[in-house]
Specification:
Strand order of the largest sheet: 1-11-8-7-5-6
Distance between the termini: 54 Å
CATH architecture of the largest domain: 3-Layer(aba) Sandwich
Family: Belongs to the tetrahydrofolate dehydrogenase/cyclohydrolase family.
EC number: 1.5.1.5, 3.5.4.9
Bound molecules: 5,10-Methenyltetrahydrofolate
Number of helices: 10
CATH class of the largest domain: Alpha Beta
Order of helices and strands: EHEHEHEHHHEHEHEEEEHEH
GO molecular function, one term: methylenetetrahydrofolate dehydrogenase (NADP+) activity
Protein name: Bifunctional protein FolD
Number of domains: 2
Number of strands: 11
Strand content: 15-25%
Mean pLDDT: 97
Keywords: Amino-acid biosynthesis, Histidine biosynthesis, Hydrolase, Methionine biosynthesis, Multifunctional enzyme, NADP, One-carbon metabolism, Oxidoreductase, Purine biosynthesis
Length: 285
């Protein structure tokens, strides 16, 4: 079997077209969605993701403001900035680019963001709402992954989804979202014994570890769906995933590439959440 490639960039482009139309209508009714992105320091990878977000926002017609602060910024001043943005009625979404420099407690920052503006879906209230299936902002990467599966009409209910990786921003929540879609979910991580014995049981295999080519055909059941969330920068400066694409493609039924896979969908779902935030904000008034 040779897999069909799920191109996240193509799906992202069509969703962005739809969102552009929606934002045009919202603006005509007096709602102008606005996202503020806070970037601390000058890590080149973070800068590149942030510019991707700005580009998507510009295309859709979402106002996006970038606040860049030096890497020496203290936690207190960042908390003050968040407080100001929480109170600014023109701002619908707030995203603080992670990771943060070591003098700043990441969890304290995430918890300072008003849950009604938490378009990353990282606040404990957002996570709790997701867990209990209440309306909330879904974390962008997991949301993008589920949207990619649905775009290909891939059944999730009753399927065995195996997640490799247990980060708070990808591994854990993507398992939860798939559980909400009635998958049977297993989590694997660095302490897992006999990893390939478990990944080989996966109907849907999600890999979010951050280790280049750690998964090849020998970890995959023939016909499985393989979603690669890895974002690894090679020595040559190119971007590569956690999955050995050519090897895995030869045995799977669907596979996502890196780049042009999950990454562009993450950004797209951030835009979707920002529009959702703007609509909810206006209902409240
Ligand atoms: N608060 C916060 N929210 C995030 O959502 C967040 C974050 N911090 N910190 C970093 C990670 C990483 N991330 C990516 C988004 C898009 C691509 C993406 O679009 N990648 C392109 C290629 C881009 C390139 O070549 O640099 C692709 O895969 O085709 C990748 C990675 C969001 N993150």
């Amino acid at each position: 079997m040779v897999a069909e490639v799920i191109y996240g960039d193509q799906l992202a482009a069509s969703l962005r077209e739809e969102m552009k139309e929606e934002v045009t209508k919202l603006k005509a009714s007096g709602i102008s969605p606005k996202l503020v992105v806070v970037l601390i320091g000058d890590d080149p990878a973070s800068k590149s993701y942030v510019s991707g977000k700005q580009k998507a926002a510009d295309f859709i017609g979402i106002d996006s403001e970038l606040i860049s602060l030096p890497s020496t910024t203290e936690e207190k001043s960042l908390l003050e900035l968040i407080e100001r943005l929480n109170n600014d009625q023109s701002v619908h979404g707030i995203l603080v680019q992670l990771p943060l420099p070591k003098q700043i407690n990441e969890q304290a920052i995430i918890e300072a963001i008003d849950p009604s503006k938490d378009v990353d879906g990282f606040h404990p209230i957002s996570i709790g709402r997701m867990l209990t299936q209440q309306e909330t902002f879904l974390p962008c990467t997991p949301y993008g992954i589920v949207t990619m599966l649905q775009s290909k009409n891939i059944d999730i209910a009753g399927k065995h989804a195996v997640i490799v990786g247990r980060s708070n921003i990808v591994g854990k929540p993507v398992g939860q979202l798939l559980l909400n879609e009635h998958a049977t979910v297993s989590y694997c991580h660095s302490r897992t014994k006999d990893l390939s014995a478990i990944t080989k049981q996966a109907d849907i295999l999600i890999v979010a570890v951050g280790r280049e080519k750690m998964i090849d055909a020998s970890f995959i059941k023939p016909g499985a769906v393989v979603i690669d969330v890895g974002v690894n920068r090679t020595n040559e400066g190119t971007l590569t995933g956690d999955v050995d694409f050519e090897s895995a493609k030869a045995v799977s039924s669907y596979i996502t590439p890196v780049p042009k896979g999950v990454g562009p969908m993450t950004i797209t779902m951030l835009m979707k959440n920002t529009i959702q935030a703007a609509k909810a904000h206006n209902k409240k008034k």
